[in-house]
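ok trying this again, last paste got cut off
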Amino acid sequence: MYVDPFITCGIVGAGVIGLAYVGNLQGWLAAADWRLPGANPVGALLILVSLYDAWNLPSVVIESFWAVISLYGLLRSLRRWPSRFSGGR
């Protein structure tokens, strides 16, 4: 089986999302930590790249939602990040 760059992107993207989820379940990545919502849009965008080659509308819809929601979480996490160092001021 030939594995092209699009398939590789999809596999890596699924792996990123899967590892982030396992990390959250194991307590390695807290939901409030910027790395968890940062990993999710990266994985979703890599999966979207793979869908460019093998189009599937329902998958594009769910990955788009996943990326947007994760970007919201990332921005929210980064907005709170300076307050962790300033004592909440």
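PB: full thing came through this time. Helices lie at 5-26, 35-53, 57-85.
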